[in-house]
């Protein structure tokens, strides 16, 4: 059984940094795509970043480019999201997801597995 477990969410002030982690249990995604998504109260879920595990190509939403970095550690079966220069509008529940296909930018199409989420709150 494949499980994705996120951690690292916290409450920080604007301008601060956080690093989210997503550990995959039960499967090793040597190829495919893993992504980070977020959903704020009353808003639709949106793609934040994704990474193609077979080659390391990365994709970002315009709203986070230059501030967020997605990376992978194959030895730990973990994907990270380093978030710098956080803004109040980054406040949301953050989810990681995995799929067997290649990435389609930051689209949420085709993901097979989702984590339970980790809360990020940024205060002004």
What this model shows, in words?
With 124 residues, the protein is mainly β. It is built from no helices and 11 strands. It has strands at 3-7, 11-13, 18-25, 33-39, 46-52, 58-60, 68-73, 78-83, 92-99, 113-114, 118-123. Strands 2, 4, 5, 6, 9, 10 and 11 form a 7-stranded mixed beta sheet that branches. A 4-stranded antiparallel beta sheet has the order 1-3-8-7, with no helix packed on it. A hairpin with a 6-residue loop joins strand 4 and strand 5 (46-52). The radius of gyration is 13 Å and the shape is globular.
Radius of gyration: 13 Å
Strand content: over 45%
The tally of strands reads 11
Distance between the termini: 40 Å
Instruction: Report the total helices.
Output: 0
Compressed to H and E, one letter per element, the order equals EEEEEEEEEEE
Q: What would the average pLDDT be, to the nearest integer? A: 95
Major sheet attributes: 7 strands, mixed
Structural class call reads: mainly beta
Oligomer category: single chain
Helix content: under 10%
Unreliable stretches (pLDDT < 50, length at least 5) are: none
- Shape label: globular
SSE layout and pairings?
Blueprint (H helix, E strand, L loop, with lengths): L2 E5 L3 E3 L4 E8 L7 E7 L6 E7 L5 E3 L7 E6 L4 E6 L8 E8 L13 E2 L3 E6 L1
Parallel strand pairs: 2-11
Antiparallel strand pairs: 1-3, 3-8, 4-5, 4-9, 5-6, 7-8, 9-10, 9-11
Keywords:
124 residues; 11 strands; 4-stranded antiparallel β-sheet; 7-stranded mixed β-sheet; mainly beta; globular
Short description:
The protein is mainly β and 124 residues long. It is built from no helices and 11 strands.
